[in-house]
Structure formats: C-alpha cells, structure tokens
Amino acid sequence: MSDFSPSDHNAANELSSVVLVVDDDPSMRSALDNLFSSVGLKVKTFECATRLLAIDFPDVATCMVLDVRMPGLGGLELQAKLANANIHVPVIIMTSHGDIPMTVKAMKAGAVDFLSKPFRDQDMLDAVAAALDRDRERRGIERSRVELRTLFESLTPSERKVMSLVSSGMMNKSVAAEIGLKEITVKVNRGKVMRKMHATSLADLVRMAETLGIASRR
After folding, report:
1. What is the pLDDT of residue 9?
2. Which helix (H) or strand (E) holds 146?
3. Contacts of 95 (CB under 8 A, 6+ apart)
4. pLDDT at res. 59
5. Peptide bond connecting 118 to the previous residue in cis, omega within 30 degrees of 0
6. Chain centroid offset of residue 168 CA
7. Cα separations (Å) of 97 from 32, 76, 78, 104, 115?
8. How much is the pLDDT for 43?
9. What DSSP element (H or E) covers 111?
C-alpha cells in the first residue's frame, strides 16, 4: 500500500493522470498496479477505504477502481461517502460477487463501469480510459467556471448589474430605467463588461451569465 506524502502530492501536479486502487486483496492490488503501470499510468494502491480517505486527492485527472466487498467500508459505501463529501472522482466498481441490484446501485450512483472478477485486462483499461476522460472533461469545465468567476469579480457592482440585465434580453434603454442610470452610461458599462469578460458577442455574454447563474429572470 502506498500513500501521498506532501512531496508526492506536489509532484503529482505534473502527471497527466492517476489511478487510485482500493482492494483488500494484495494480489489484486499488485496485478492492477502492474497493469496500469504497463501503459504509463501513475498508480496508488490502498488495502482499505480508510487509507484512501486520509489522502489529499491529486490535482490531475484521476479515477478510482474500487472493490465492492472489503472489511469495513465497502466500495459502494465508499462511493456514496465520496459523493457526500463533494469528491467527484469517477469510479469503476469491481467484484467477484456482483449481482444486478448491486450493478444498478453502482451505476445510478455515477460509476463509470462495473466489472466482475475475473475481468479481461483490456476491459479494465478501457474502463479506466473512459473514467480519466470524464475527469479531464469535468476538470476543464471547473477551471473554465473558476476563470469566469474571476473575470466577473473584476466588474464593478454597476457593471455586474448591467451584465445581469443585458444578458436577460433587456435593451439598453430598459436597463437604464431599471437601475436609474443614463442610457449612455449603460452603453459604456456594457462595453466595459464585454471587454472585461472577454465576450466576443452578446450570445457569448449570455452563455457566461448562465454559467455563472447571474442572468436576471424577468
């Protein structure tokens, strides 16, 4: 079993992806470590859920491969605990005791795949590839949202109000009447909003407002 030290965590930022494996069977942990390492993936293995929950998750594309039946917290329980903690790392569930209700529960909870032991190496690699792609996409969306929020916070209170009203479809004259400004002032603020938000069109600004959840509902 291995864990993240602070130095390991910093070094992980330079990696393209990490696979976290949780299984109480040492032979399975070793086999998966070898399998993922053979295709150039960084692997961290844990013999129980408690060990996994003690780490700082790497700030790179990550997925988890969890065994269903383990002493203490099982894979499905760990999956639920992570979701409740707002940790949205894609999960692949594996078991030698799977059944249909268990599969349905895992997939409804957001599992990328559910593999019964013994499984083909290629099936596991395909599932991990899909999970890592999903996490890269999620991280990209989150980065864009953070960048957008930073741009929005650079606006003055008046500019934020103008952005909210304009993105809801109001004309400059109506916006001016709504917030008690001259129409020319609204036009100036609208131009500043477009520049500061790096919006290339009104449609672009509308999408930004929707993403930020600040579009005025009228």
Report:
1. 40
2. helix 121-153
3. 67, 68, 69, 75, 102, 114, 116, 117
4. 87
5. yes
6. 28
7. 19, 13, 17, 14, 10
8. 95
9. none
- Spatial CA neighbour of 109 closest among 132, 75, 80, 67: 80
Per-residue tokens: 54: 């003690």
The amino acid present at 53, given as its one-letter code, is L
Give the pair of three-digit tokens for residue 151: 């741009």
| Average pLDDT value for the chain | 85
CB neighbour list of residue 208: distance below 8 Å, 6 or more residues apart: 148, 152, 167, 197, 199
Per-position b or e across 202-218, b if 16+ CB within 10 A of its CB: eeebbebbeebebbbee
Q: Are 25 and 37 in contact (CB under 8 A)?
A: no
- CA 41 – CA 217 distance, rounded (Å): 46
Q: Give CA–CA dist 151/74, Å, rounded.
A: 42
DSSP conformation class of 112: S
Distances (CA, A) of 7 to 12, 15, 22, 47, 58: 9, 13, 22, 22, 11
Look up residue 118 and give its DSSP letter: S
